[in-house]
Amino acid sequence: MEVKTKHKLGRKRLSEDLTTEIRNYIIDKGLKPGDALLTEQQMVERFGVSRPVVREATKALDFLGIIRSAPRRGMILDSFDFDRVSEYFGFHFALSDYPKDELLKSRIALETGALYYTMEAMREKPELFDYLMECVEIADTEEDIEAWIEHDIAFHRALVEVSNIGPLGSFCDLIHVFFHEFHDKTAQGHFVSGKEQHEQIVHALRDGHVDEAVRILRFHLSWYEDDEEPGVSS
Amino acid sequence: MEVKTKHKLGRKRLSEDLTTEIRNYIIDKGLKPGDALLTEQQMVERFGVSRPVVREATKALDFLGIIRSAPRRGMILDSFDFDRVSEYFGFHFALSDYPKDELLKSRIALETGALYYTMEAMREKPELFDYLMECVEIADTEEDIEAWIEHDIAFHRALVEVSNIGPLGSFCDLIHVFFHEFHDKTAQGHFVSGKEQHEQIVHALRDGHVDEAVRILRFHLSWYEDDEEPGVSS
DNA sequence: CCGCTTTATTTGTCATACAATAACACAATT
DNA sequence: AATTGTGTTATTGTATGACAAATAAAGCGG
Description:
Chain A is mostly helical and about 230 residues long. Helix content of chain A is about 65%, strand content about 5%.
């Protein structure tokens, strides 16, 4: 038999209907981010449901970042926020259980894809070169491996963030979360070469050699995929 | 009734914290879609919050399709509903004025970053070349602009998806949602050149010229920027 | 006129009750 | 004995009420 596809299964949940009613209300009124929404009490009266139902519906939209609420101020439409998106993408990735190499490739694709705009940003603001070189140095000064990992990721984060592309930064942050876990496994022995390659990337970008920077960065990150498997204890 | 008035100054909303705790629980237990989750009452006891809070949190996840619930059966995990999320993101995006150039740059960075792996995939599976060329042709056969937009996005989607990197595909899907909104504004006049460039990209990848493919793709997508300064030297 | 205090409104949280539903246990019937 | 019908019960769905916390707005005193 057909597997019963994921449909309603309890369609008569009021909170779910209410989200669409709220959405319609927003569309009807032509509300924009920043505009005030109905209060919980007003929704109770207008839509004829209880307050818990209203809250379940609004908290769902809140979780998506569509609305923001605060005491005494009521609820207002929020502007789009990619960091919110990352929250549920975290769920998505956690559930889908993507293999390690896919996460790595995603990271490489993201970071290399951003390099062009990092280069552009450096061309417009030469001081970014100094800033990035600072990040390189900072990542090198520490001796504690934990701190080094932090600074290493901070460098890669900075590499993307100076391009000043919001969604890209959010995506990278999300991916980086997964790298904290198995970062230290093979981090040893990459202190030095890591710093050198960081330097090479920044210099290549300064000189406008984006293709070369991409190649170095790809190589720099690909040591993760050295299938070491040092005893899977967990 | 013993523990009351827990001072949570500066504490955020409990329901929001609970969603992350539930996520951690899912990750910890290694739960997969179809597995049973805790009941509401169990969550009340385990996380020390009231049932309304539990419901606000779970209904938010339910709204995303991550959780499915039914009386007497409890809650079970479900792979989440991407369409549902896209629907509300498209809606939310329509309201907000998220800077379009950031979205465009994100898209370009993502797609160009993926090209390397698209090339790798093509090298391993040469039939992907034919598949992508099919997508190119399909995108050209239609005359209706709406359908053309669909097929154009389908090509770009395919370009990333053949690399078989899950998270990257998800990111691209999300970004593409936003492009449906303002795609048609400047789509006219790119029918022909679009097809040619699509072809050039696929051919360049087949021949292993990833840098060239990247350049073409970046140029191919950069026509979206309307009111920005016309052309950088190229 | 300004700064502080009070007030009122709205969200945040908790407790409880009841309804609806579906899985389960068990008895009844064939 | 197997199946079926029925009641029980666990779990979610919804409603109501209450109180705490936070904060914008009003009121007050200097």
